[in-house]
Fold this protein.
Amino acid sequence: MEVLLHQIDAFADAPFSGNPAAVMPLSAWLPDALLQNLAEENNLAETAFYTAQLPPDAGARPGEWPAFHLRWFTPTLEVNMCGHATMAAAAQVLEDIHPGEDRVSFFTRSGWLHVDRTDDDEYVLDLPALESREVEPDPVLIEALGVRPVRAFTGFDEVIVLGSEQEVRDAHPNFAAFPPLPFDAVITARGESCDIVSRVFGPDLGVIEDPVTGSAHAQLVPLWTRELGRTELTARQLSHRGGSMRCELVGDRVLLVGRCRRYLDGVVTLPD
């Protein structure tokens, strides 16, 4: 059996930037253990698998445009939301399968997600806005991160607000000292050349530091729009690869705008 494999960098400003995702279209779902093996072999933050077969709980299709069932796997587990791999999957669908369309929807563990392609070949990812609750910083996590928190929030991810972009850039976490976390740890601050900056760490999810994280911004954007008093923001993730996006809070949705760059197309041969 052969399965197509596409590696696409999402939120990429230039070649070899942004967050690489593996996108693997399927005619039907393979066993979960095999999907996990493929994601481990791909060894990227996420592998996105999709099929045209919508599950019964998807309900009515959101429109006449293409729609698929999408799932995301890190090298160690299946996750509930992934922004960059959704954008990468949309780029592959709209470039290879439906070049005449400019919108695609995916039914996921986070409900229906939508991606639009603009006339400038940018992609607009539509995610649910994720709320945060302010908490006292976890001292074990703070020590492992090696940072001085200004504020701390919990929600989909654990968010630590720092005093400056330089503090975010200079952080050198001790991952061996991290407490068990079923979600990402995010450090963030106001930016110097953009509105907000961040870095995202998920050692328990199989991703030590994520290059550019759409799902984290589904939580960061509502948080920072309250802090800055604006619904449109620019953001940059300060990982080694780096990546940028434009963000907008629209009601209970977060829109993230970025570019995709295809790195490779290939075929995976599976054993019988």
Remarks:
- The chain is about 20% helix and 40% strand.
- The first strand starts at residue 2 and ends at 10.
